[in-house]
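Appendix B, example 12.
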Amino acid sequence: MLLLTIIRRTWARWRPRAGSRLSRLKRRPRTGPRRSAVRGLVLVRHGWRVLLPALALLLVLIVRFSGPGSMHAFSGEAKARLEVHSYANLDQAAYRLRYPAMAGLLVRGHVIPGLHANFVPQGVDFLPDESNRAVISGYFCQRFDRAPLRWGLISLCGKKQSALYLVDLDDGKALRLAMLEERDGTPMRRHAGGVAVLHERLWLPDNFELLRFDLSRLLKAWTKVITLRPENKTRIGVDSSGDFITARGDTLWVGNFQRADRGAPLPPHYQSLGVGTAGWTAAYRIDRETLRPVNEQTYTVNWSGRDFEVYRPDAALHHRNLVQGMTFIDERRIVLSTSWGNRDSGLSFHRLSSDPLKPPGDEVPTVTLPDGSTIPVWPMLPATLEMQIAAPPGAEGVTFDGQLLLSVFEGGALPYRERWNDLEDRMVMYQPPGVTLRDTPLVPLVAPKASQ
């Protein structure tokens, strides 16, 4: 209707006026080839004045309202972010020499897109279909600041722009890039430490809340580079700082990365019983209709002296510090991805005493929440650890599709590639112990030539 209104007003402005050549022409008899040709020429000369404004408006409306596409799609810089440039990683021989346990499980790997444009990968999740695609969360560093460290100055990211990549796991190509915005349309400056797919939505945790995005808009957009805003209009508070996330069944598991005195003074229920660690992951069943936690009870949790109103979780886990990602292999087996700085990452395989989504037995301890109620907490202790595998530095999010584990590494991103030793710039797929592969070819990892 808006387009039709503007066309009518434009025509009213530019229509032939009394006494004009076109007006006189319209009053003449419409006979004879010469008069018809002259009338057609005059109509063409005046018609563009109506068509050009209408076509310009139509283009603006298409870009603005047809899916999530925006002017980012027409930017050369934005399109360049879809490219893949490798800087350094380890081939099969190097894995066998330095990470032999990991080498025995590797299946294939692809360089993460956008590293040349300062993308820093954080989280990852498979799409729950047969398309062999995945979504990677992270941020583009738009400004670097120099900060002191023990041996000198290092570069730290001083300005972030959150983003999501849709990638093809057959060839590693970036199918689409979503630049994330806040609800008010301003660029999102969050860490985007994890991503999970549940109920046809994308879920990102950050700072004690969940952000929900429409997955179909990422899959079906008509442009390669788009913008996405959270679709939840009101805050979804969760009892976790939101550094990683995973989905299992109808439940989201949202965890915190704990190191040193981060978050101090910590909430008492984050402290592991008798172990001294403060890793905490809270579970929330999500209603398919409301797309919010089933349990609507809330309380206030204090973190770093700030109060956050959060929903009461349905279950929880205690685990070690430095966790960057987590995923379930089955009802009881969990994989933790841990890393910090220029040191080996770890992939820890734990087996819980029971399914944490079912009523707990007497062996499962409880902790007291800030509202005075208690909740069962499944501890992941040395007694539950089945295996730990060393991996290159920078392991972040991890996910499982029923056959393969998929991990993303940030070693190829600035500034880490300037100062780390063993660099891994790929999303790596590997076989978890005890899982038999079905029709999955093994592709040896070959380190490509570094980009200049």
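The two ends are 52 Å apart (CA to CA). The chain has a mean pLDDT of 85.
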